[in-house]
Every structure is written in C-alpha cells, then in structure tokens.
Design brief:
Blueprint lengths: L1 E2 L3 H31 L3 H11 L5 H23 L1 E14 L1 E7 L13 H15 L4 E7 L3 E8 L2 H9 L13 H11 L8 E7 L9 H10 L2 E7 L6 E2 L19 E2 L3 H10 L3 E4 L3 H13 L4 E13 L1 H17 L11
Parallel strand pairs: 3-4, 3-6, 6-7, 7-10
Antiparallel strand pairs: 1-2, 2-11, 4-5, 8-9
Helix pairs in contact: 1-3, 3-10, 4-5, 4-9, 6-7
Length: 341
C-alpha cells in the first residue's frame, strides 16, 4: 500500500487527540459544576434522573465514538491510500551500493555542523537522491555491525531506515570497520556479476592500522570497492554526553576526551580496495564525487519486481466516514423507550 499524502494522517491524529481532550475537559467541567450544585452523589443521581429521564449516557458516548471514527476515516481518505494491483518486473541497470554508517558515540562530536552523525545521514540521503537504477543496502556499526536494510531498489525504505539511525542504537562502543566489511560481504549476491560498492562513513577513530590488512584482504576476496568518507577534523572535538547534566566525555583521569578524524586509515582502506576517499565537510562536493565515481563503473542489468498500476482507495474511506457522520447525526442521545414503573 502507498500513502500519497501522509501528512493528512498526522493531521488526523492531531485532530482526534484535540477532540478527545475537549471531550474529557468538558466532561470534567460538567462533573465539577454538578458537584457544586449537589455534593451528595445519590441525590445528584436522582435529580438528574428526574430532570432528564430520557437521557442515555451510553448513547451519548456511542455517538461520540462514532463521530471520532468518522473523523479518522475522513482523514485516511484525504491521505489517499493506494494499492498496487499488479506485480510487474522492471529491468534496471546499475551497481550494488551498501552504506555502512558509524554510530559510535564519537560521531556526536560537533567539529562539523551540526555533528558527525547528522552530516553522515545527510550525505546518505543526498546520495540516495542522486542514484537512479542502483540497488542499495544499509549497515550500522560501532563495536559490532548490525544489518539495517538488505539490498533493494526501494529508496523510500532506505530513507525510512535512515531516519532511525542514531548513536543510541548500540550500547557497546568502538569502530569495528572490519565487522562492517564482513557483514557487507554477505549483502552481495555471490552469483551476480554486479559491481559491489561499500560506502563507509566514519571518523575512523579506535581503528588501528593493523586491522587494515585484514579488511583489505576481505574486501578483495569479495570484490568490494570501498568509498570511505571521513567525518570530522584532524583537530577533533569533545564528545557530548547524552545525559541530563550534559557536559563532555572524560577519560579515567578526568580529562575531556578529544575525538579526532583518523584520515590516514580511511585513505589507506580506499586506496588499497580501488575505491575513493572523501571528506564529509562539503556535502554537495562529496555527493558529486560519489555520483561521478559510480557513473564510470560498468553497469549490470538486473530485474526487480515491484507493484504497479496503483489505484486510489480514498473513496472507500470517505464514504465510510460520511456514512458514520450520518449515523451519528440520526442516532438519538435519548432513550427510545421509557421503562414502565
């Protein structure tokens, strides 16, 4: 199912929430007024039964529920859900691209605005906008690597997963680039002959030169070319603590930790895997360089299945919403039959 105007769903939730608040406040206000008029609960009940013998509290609340449901259906209709009625096969040409995003706490450093992790997400988002027929996947890593999105042509799903990427995703800290490459190697189809590109976005911190040889060997065995994107500066910056008290991360001796970009390691990885090293400071230049690099690669034709011939479904929800409004308007709030005493 595809939602053409998803913002109407948010507006609908807001409207229903406000209506619920109004109904609750109004009911509370009525109880307060009646309590002041008659503090005794028993006498108040008898008084209401005598003044309005035909009024049904149950019917009143049923009408309110029906009204809220009608509002919900109308807003869903305005959002215009669409359903694909035919599963088609589309032929595309491109390469397989996996994004590996460093989510260690050092990515919170603000030596590039607004901070390293947000800059990384911005670059991935802009790169997705620049891609056309390529398949994409996504990995996050800190002390270990974790799969986010398998290889797909659904860029919308990639953007959705990207929004949830943050430095709180993993409790264990570190920069396990080797683990990210190992996981990325499982993403690519062994039998397919598509070009395999890993875009690795990191500050490179906590990664020693000794692990580079293992990483390069693994990448070459899997025919992976790595584009490394360095987030941060060589001067570095302190790492903000995500606590109510704020402040910055400190070492065991109480000194503020300064996180610095390990550009040497990232450049070495890119060079030895036939890739490209880029600095994340300028988003536009970085994305243009990625686009140019991918454009000169041999493209491979592949097939993907997707739903086509989407049909609007808004009319059903609008019709149900209007029908509920009619039912709510004709449904009495008074008892139809009075009990005989």
């Amino acid at each position: 199912m595809l939602i053409e105007q998803p913002h109407f769903l948010s507006l609908g939730l807001l409207a229903i929430g406000l209506l619920l608040v109004v109904l609750i406040v109004y009911g509370f206000w009525q109880n307060v007024k009646m309590s002041k008029a008659q503090p005794d609960v028993t006498l108040r009940t008898l008084m209401l039964a005598r003044l309005a013998p035909m009024r049904s509290h149950k019917l009143v609340w049923i009408k309110r529920v029906i009204f809220l449901l009608s509002i919900a259906f109308l807003f869903v209709g305005l959002a215009n859900p669409k359903i694909g009625t035919q599963l088609g096969t589309i032929k595309r040409e491109g390469v397989d691209v996996v994004f590996a995003i460093d989510v260690s706490k050092s990515m919170l450093a603000e030596d590039i605005a607004p901070n390293r992790i947000e800059k990384a997400k911005r670059i991935v988002s802009e790169t997705l906008n620049a891609l056309t027929g390529d398949r994409v996947g996504m990995i996050t890593y800190a002390a270990t690597a974790f799969p986010q999105l398998p290889i797909t042509t659904d860029y919308g799903a990639a953007r959705m997963f990207l929004k949830g990427v943050n430095t709180d995703m993993m409790s264990s800290q570190g920069t396990a680039i080797v683990e990210a490459v190992k996981l990325a190697s499982t993403y690519f189809d062994v039998e397919a002959e598509t070009r395999r590109i890993l875009i690795l976005i990191s500050d490179g911190e906590d990664h020693s030169d000794s692990g580079v040889s293992e990483l390069v060997q693994l990448a070459k065995q899997s025919s992976i070319q790595i584009i490394t994107i360095g987030t941060g500066t060589e001067a570095g910056a302190p790492i903000p603590e995500n606590t109510p008290r704020g402040g910055f991360k400190k070492d065991g001796e109480g000194n503020v930790v300064i996180s610095k970009l390990n550009q040497v390691v990232l450049e070495q990885i890119a060079t030895e895997t036939g890739g490209l090293y880029l600095n994340a400071s300028d988003t536009e230049k970085t994305v243009d360089a990625i686009r140019s690099y991918l454009a000169q690669l041999d493209k491979t034709a592949f097939e993907t299945q997707t739903y086509s011939n989407y049909k609007d479904q808004f009319q059903w929800f609008i019709a149900i919403g209007l029908a509920l409004l009619i039912i709510e308007s004709v449904l009495p709030s008074r008892k139809i039959f009075k009990k005989q005493s």
